[in-house]
Amino acid sequence: MIIVRFTSGLGNQMFQYNLYSLLKEKYPSATVKADVSWFYTNDEHHGFELCRIFENVPDSRFSLDRASAREIYKVSGQIPTLFSGPLAKPVRFLLGPVNRKLREARMPEKCGITFDQLNEKFSAEQVTNIDPGKNHYIFGFFIEEAYYRSRIGTLKEELVFPPLEGRCAALAEEMKSVESVSVHVRRGDYLSQTYADRFLCLDRSYYEPAVNIIREKMDSPWFYIFSEDPEFVEKEFAWLDDKTIVDINNGSDSFRDMQLMTKCRANIIANSTFSQWASILNENAEHITIYPARYMSDEDTEERTLPGWIRV
């Protein structure tokens, strides 16, 4: 059995889903399941969103088979939190010493092989070329292009958004009628004590050169700026006249921003998996994507080889 662990926000969940889908496709005779128990005790962003957004959408091939607690224990050798709610975190705390003992006593030949990209660096080739006859518990983020480069057509059939309505639908129609360019500005948690030392908050030194590249490639671009901090954007982008600040989606509807970005003819993405997915799923042929050379404060990003992607 192969189990892929899902964690974090929507963009990371989508990368984890890509690996899950890839393994199901590559090993049709194997049992591949998803461990979503992390969300029982973590409320980062908007929780586990994949099924709420992509399940039961007409003409979508999305599906997700969840692993049971017994299956997670069998494959990972760890006792997962069994339920969500107010008692979930105390239970996880109580299970901590038990799971530490289990890790110390764990015998790989009995409990299977674990790929942990949070603590060790495994290549895409290692993670996707495994013995399907053995147990594998896999967790990490899997954002490297090697995991999805050849699967974009499949992903566009699986990660299908629900139909747009109301103001979002009207804005999507407007985007079709102009040379639309999405601009994603991520702040929020990147300013928090948890992430401030790790992630860059991109500023004008990135966005202005990105806008200039778009102006060289489009005759009359119109920029649609997406951010969870519209007041900051209003001041920070005062130098940009031909723009619309999109502030109509919040909370559980925030995914609609990603969906609207896929409608634009070009994307200026942030150091965020959220807007990266908007470019991967972009509906326009030969669309342009501007992406930052640095995502983290201490390292550069990998160079993308997808057509139309330009590194700044």
Model description:
It is a single chain. This protein is an alpha/beta fold and 312 residues long. It has 2 domains: 2-148, no CATH class; 165-311, Rossmann fold (3-Layer(aba) Sandwich). The protein contains 13 helices and 12 strands. The protein has a 6-stranded parallel sheet, with helices on both faces. It has a 4-stranded parallel sheet with strand order 2-1-4-3, with helices on both faces. The chain has a two-stranded antiparallel ribbon with strand order 10-11. Strand 8, helix 13 (273-280) and strand 9 (288-291) form a beta-alpha-beta unit. Helix 1 (10-26) crosses helix 13 and helix 12 (255-261) crosses helix 13. The longest helix is centred in the N-terminal third of the chain and has 18 residues, at 88-105.
Question: Can you tag this structure with a few keywords?
Answer:
312 residues, alpha/beta, Rossmann fold, 2 domains, six-stranded parallel β-sheet, four-stranded parallel β-sheet, 13 helices, 16% strand, globular
Largest sheet: 6 strands, parallel
Task: Please state the average pLDDT score.
Answer: 90
- Total tally of structural domains: 2
Q: Major sheet: order of its strands?
A: 7-6-5-8-9-12
Q: Hey, roughly how much beta strand do the residues contain?
A: 15-25%
Query: From N to C, what is the helix and strand string?
Result: EHEHHHHEHEHHHEHEHEHEHEEEE
**How many H/I helices?**
13
**Class by alpha and beta content:** alpha/beta
Approximate shape: globular
Distance between the termini: 42 Å
Total E-strand runs: 12
Q: What is the helical fraction, as a range of percent?
A: 25-40%
